[in-house]
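Folding follows sequence. Below is one example:
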Amino acid sequence: MSTFEPVLSRNWSVADSHTLKVYESRGGYQAARKTLATMAPDAVVNLVKDSELRGRGGAGFPCGLKWTFLPKDRKATLMCVNADESEPATFNNRLLMERDPHQLLEGILIACFATRASTAYIYLRFEYIRAYRILEAAIEEARAAGHLGKNIYGSGYNLDVWVHRGAGAYICGEETGLIESLEGKRGWPRIKPPFPAIEGAFRKPTVVNNVETLCCVPHILERGAIWFKSIGTPKSYGPKLYTISGHVNRQVCVELPLGITCRALIEEHGGGVWKGRKAKAAVPGGISMGLLSAAELDTPLDFESLRKPGCLGLGTAAVTVLDDQTRIIDYLYNTCRFFAHESCGQCTPCREGTGWLNKMIQRIRSGGGRLEDLDLMLNLADNLGIMPGTTICGLADGAAWPIKNAIAKFRGELEDHIRTHQSPAHEVSRLQEDIAQGRQADDSRARLPILNGLLTAPASSRQAPGIGSV
């Protein structure tokens, strides 16, 4: 760790790091100049492919390989930059855009040259107002200096970059939902195939890459694939921006080689668990990834290792720490509520399943839980998402995985909560028991008190419903 040289965040501590003057003074755009002057697009694709750069947006798909999916005979190509960053507790892309926007623009320039894209759209989370203003100013600076526009560096290559602000929908972090929103439509993910590389934005071949992924590209072109693969762990190469938040003493974003353990990140960079407490669990990369228990905190935070303790993956590398006084039922309540709210509603299993899970966890939390609810929630989670082939995108999997993960690792605590938190308001009535068992119900128990009073009152005192004072 001591020999690691940060590159993605190397300009952050410099005053006015967001300006073109500072970026160029520290070697900025030199990789782009060299690339456009001396390399063919296919050579750039092969170099990025050789580096084994994996997407930093959550899925971890190989970037260079993704670029090769574009049709060879295409007449036009578009680039969509995913700057939506709507995964809870994730803020690394925001810092990249606010503190070093020209690094992103240089990455976009090289990636567009490699894929022969003539237009790039930065799809930006609406709430990132400061990032929006900084990006717009940086794009104007880059155009004025000849880094964007017509005949860049005299190479004959043209590129326009535009910022498009989203409307705050989590689902638009999914690439086809992003494309639909970019086109001015409801942000509903598309059925695939065709994939965006074949038919994407405005029905043209489209590449969709994350902000941090593209920020890695200039450094690969400058230093080479061997340098990039010298950092990290096997199949998880290169530097990574980790964010750490939750119950820690320092909530920060730090650049480290892929593969640091969760415990080292908490203790060395997060300043340890706050208030002198211990960690109960940690979310390794956004709430859709599941939980690491306290006994699993020595797991390396990379694309491969996190699958062993039952997490969905590295995700966005946004680590959120839960201290030992946090109830898992509260974690599940916040998680289920979020996914029920953010489901786009297009697919019935996701729309209904996330809603059911949210209602069940609310009932359990408020004192109406049953032990069999945990198995029912697992059954719902197992049949919810794209993995069993029932939904268009992966949001349902992201909603289901924390449920399965938390019940597997903290079932004892959840069962204790159900046993010890029973509210009289949730007691089952005899009428409900009769209906549930298929028995004939006693009509006298079905009458509401107000109705019984109305029926037994003298005829002269009865009023028609809705008539009279309220």
Summary: Residues 449-457, 459-470 have pLDDT under 50 and may be disordered. The first helix runs from residue 20 to 25. The chain has four domains: 20-230, 236-318, 328-420, 430-459. The longest strand covers residues 239-246.
